[in-house]
Design a protein that fits this description.
6 helices, 5-stranded mixed beta sheet, binds zinc ion, about 20% strand, elongated, alpha+beta
Length: about 280
């Protein structure tokens, strides 16, 4: 299958999609930018700053007014095109908050877009009217602390919180497993009919899908607890046992997710750590 790079796909009335050419082990075929609205638009997740992608978005806008450029979070595959697109469309950047880094040290890892500066950050439940319908911010921390989903006409742009092709990477310290689980539970209690993720196909059975994701994480948690209950282990040892046959490109991400589980379990008093060794408490 040839992925539809730079080809505008109309998914339903008022929701269209444009795929950026940044395929990888983490982005699937690439980042999907959504155009919400008809006579006027909001652009969700403008994506990486690739000139041909920004050109394709500008062409898809076709001179229509753009009310807002909205980012779900500030990873480099989502927000860097916001500024060039704002310059070319005149639209404000309104959406997730810039990431508040506690230190400028190792936490400011390469995945983050440190240059992101929104005109306005939306709080949970805040709305922007587009074509007479609200785009509503749904705060969904976990993948990142600043992650928002955007609800529009019964659909939800789910960013990287819920993806259509893979489970989400939860990488501490900004990624937080307890927050991620709470954000999944928050979506489970909503009644959005379809999710449009930043990576992968639409999710047309959201409730069942989100339940499956929660079940998967709970199973992973039990597995981590069992492994550290057998003997003290470090994270690479847990990854080797919990993810047999893992694609080597994903070992670091899996280590991050295991670390996120361990930190959550530690907060709940179920594990403790000594240096790089983790043990059941
Ligand atoms: Zn992404």
């Amino acid at each position: 299958m040839e992925a539809p790079y730079a080809k505008l796909e109309q998914l339903e009335p008022g929701i269209a999609r444009l795929l950026a050419h940044n395929p990888s082990a983490f982005t699937y075929y690439g980042t999907q930018t959504y155009l919400l609205g008809e006579r006027e638009l909001a652009i969700v997740d403008p994506g990486p700053d690739l000139p041909e992608h920004v050109d394709a978005i500008v062409q898809a806008i076709g001179g229509r007014p753009v009310v807002a450029i909205m980012c779900t979070h500030t990873h480099r595959d989502h927000s860097p095109a916001a500024r060039p697109l704002a310059e070319r469309s005149g639209a404000p950047i309104i959406g997730c908050a810039p990431l508040a880094l506690e230190t400028a040290g190792p936490r400011a890892d390469a995945a983050f877009d440190g240059d992101y500066r929104p005109e306005r950050a939306l709080e949970d439940g805040e709305a922007i009217a587009v074509d007479g319908q609200d785009v509503i911010a749904v705060a969904t921390p976990g993948h990142t602390s600043n992650h928002l989903c955007f609800a529009y006409r019964g659909a939800l742009c789910s960013g990287d919180h819920v993806m259509g092709w893979s489970t989400t990477v939860v990488f501490p310290p900004d990624g937080d497993m307890a927050a991620y689980m709470a954000s999944l539970d928050k979506l489970r209690q909503r009644d959005d009919r379809t999710y449009y993720p930043a990576h992968g196909p639409p999710v047309t059975n959201p409730e069942q899908y989100v339940r499956g994701l929660m079940g998967h994480r709970m199973q992973r948690e039990r597995q981590v607890l069992k492994l550290v209950g057998e003997q003290p282990r470090d994270i690479p040892d847990i990854v080797a046992n919990a993810y047999p046959g893992l694609d080597p490109r994903l070992v670091t991400a899996a280590g991050g997710s295991v670390f996120a589980h361990l930190l959550d379990l530690e907060r709940r008093g179920l594990v403790r750590n000594d240096g790089d060794q983790w043990t059941a408490a």
